[in-house]
Amino acid sequence: MTATPSPATPHEAPLATSTAATQQEVDAARGPLDSLRAAVARVYLGPARTIDLLLLALLGRGHALLEGVPGVAKTTLVKAFATALGCSVRRVQFTPDLLPSDITGTYVLSPKDGTFNLRPGPIFANVVLADEINRAPAKVQSALLEVMQERQVTIAGETHKVPEPFLVMATQNPIETEGTYPLPEAQVDRFMMKVLVDYPSEEEEFVIAQRVTGPATGVSAVATMTQLAELQQECRRVYVDPSLVQYAVKLVSATRRPERYDLPELRKYLTFGASPRATIGLVEGARALAFMRGRNYALPEDMTGLVADVLRHRLVLTYEALADGLDADQIVQRVMKKIAVPDKPLAPPAHASTHG
Known about the structure:
alpha/beta; Rossmann fold; 5-stranded parallel beta sheet; 15 helices
């Protein structure tokens, strides 16, 4: 069996540099962000924060899980976002009969020369839309574990890199249970954030009805892969103060050992707390939000507004929490009330390390 080259050559972008970005560099690099936001808003009429959270996942090189009831435009949002990015996009409709090879691809025999050649699956794209991801069993979900973490796929013993930038955007329905499967915790933890998509307001729904029943509105690409790589590179140079990193560590640690933070009452509600990926997600999210807000350094408010989005899907609650009517967001709020927010840094010090 002979292996063929990876179907797409990744664009290797530096992930970090030794010094923090200057304010001028941040201003110069942010150009495509406003264009992306405006392009998506042409077809998705909902909270601007939802669009911003997807941008955060892109800048932070993370993945996003969108959860909402049917009909709130989750798939429309992700498709518009992916199209506006101007990169390769593949959609996978998850079903109970899906196979892992339907996602990763497989080797097929070529009758012409008798060799096995790789037929790549939809995972070899910059943006992968996993629609209704919880409709496939764990056997299929396992096909995403390696690629979501390591940006590579192993097929028949051969490892292939996926294109960069790489982003998995998944949707799921929280109220339907027939024909669905709970996602493995190891996979859920690989999503940088879980975004809750709520019903639109009456005013928004009125405009939605007008748009859908009126002339079709499309989305065109407003960015290039080179621009995306540059955005990610500049975002990683945004300075995060060590005190803010420590704040993230304490928030996550309090979900594992709440009694150490004077929260003993939470112990009976938590089977497992958040993993170190949550701490990384908070730091990367704060950095990306600071970048989107036009700053070359992160402030505490850049992180506090993202804590629930980064932690809610990583907490494993006990049956007692469900019996008492507590959800993950409520537990996160209790933790945030107990952990003191650090003081605001005035500015990044000269020659500051981007790793805090």
